[in-house]
Amino acid sequence: MSTMTMARATLAKDLRMEWRSKDAINSMLFFGLLVVVIFSFAFNPNAEESRHIAGGLIWVAFLFAAVVALNQTWARELRNQVLDAYRVSPAPANALFLAKAFGNFIFVAVLELLMAPLFIVFYNLRSVGPAWQLVVVAVLGTWALVVNGTFFAALSIRTRNREMMLPLILFPISIPALLAMVDSTTSILTGEASPDFWMKMLLVYDVVFTSVCLLLFESVLNAE
Amino acid sequence: MNLLTKLFLVLTVAALGYAAYEGLVVAPTEQTMGDVQRIFYYHVPSAWTAFLLFFSNFIASIVYLAKRNAAADAVAAATAEVGVVFCTVVLVTGPIWARPVWGIWWTWDARLTTTLVLWLIYVSYLVLRRYSVGSQTSVLAAALAIFGFVDVPIVYMTIRWFRTQHPSPVIGGGEGSGLHPSMWPPLLWNWLAFSMLAVVLVVARYRLQTMEQEVEKEHAHAALQGSPQ
Which residue in the set A155, A209, A224 is minimally distant from B128, CB to CB? Predict the structure, then answer.
């Protein structure tokens, strides 16, 4: 079976399971909502201020909420030794990785679509710069979070403190991506600076780390 | 400890002593900063040593993934741990020096921030090593080490751009441009001494790590033989 067929089958399975149970999306969404509300109490910004800090708030909220979904990526596959079965099957390891990463991308993207109106309402946001660029930043930024997040979730699931481990290893590596996401979003919202450099930076980050993930995933999956 | 190790240990102690003498007595007092500048002879050699150790960790991790060689894994564990120690020295001596000279403890400048992120990455590496179980530790740690090392140049580029957009309150303060010739010998002596100290620590840590590997292997062996099935 080719990588793409495999990946599509795994992705379809994950999406179907999520559609029926709605485990990840519900907990992520409620968690994200709580973060939005708590942030607005903590900072209590007016419309002008909120435009300057919204980039940071939005991405920190998405980052925290994404960790909730990422942690559930592999938990399901540990039960009934699904991962072991996967290891002995001739299916390419990267197909599994890509399916999981795309699955997480879809979950987090849905979360962002549902949360964006909340941010706009609670923080009275209106973009000064071209708003379509926000979509580009969201796609690149979300991929930057989930590609490494999916990989590191596979590492952390093997450790003794499972759920706790993921943010500990994901956040330090994600610092440059987070900085790029926050600054490009703020540049677009305020219209004061050009987000071009940050968007290119995100693209570089995505390309580099997607390659590293694909290069190393098989070793990690087969680690004994 | 064999004779060679003992000899190297004595040489390291001697080098550390002489380097301290060079840095504290022989080196000229800096014109504007005064005696506080002498922390430079500890700060910069620690940074160089830390970067060298992190680079060794990266190489050892690649070798481990390619060859699955237990010695490479022990080297990776040892260099990361000692590297974090030297990086901590850098992050502690930096603010002590910055406060009287720049008037602030910390600034989010490219080099400072990159060093801090580097430290965070390798601490997370040590946490992963500490909490993963069994023989898979080596593979997981090696993978994370490669991620960490690849991340460093990206961090440096983003922070440099970040800083040029938001100028930091302190202009300059770099020591790279125009070091007085008489300051080079103390600097290099200290670097030599710190590198020797790093070698001593890495070798000791490496031996400990290989012993741990042996013990783990024995445990696994005993468990396999002892279980009546």
Answer: A155
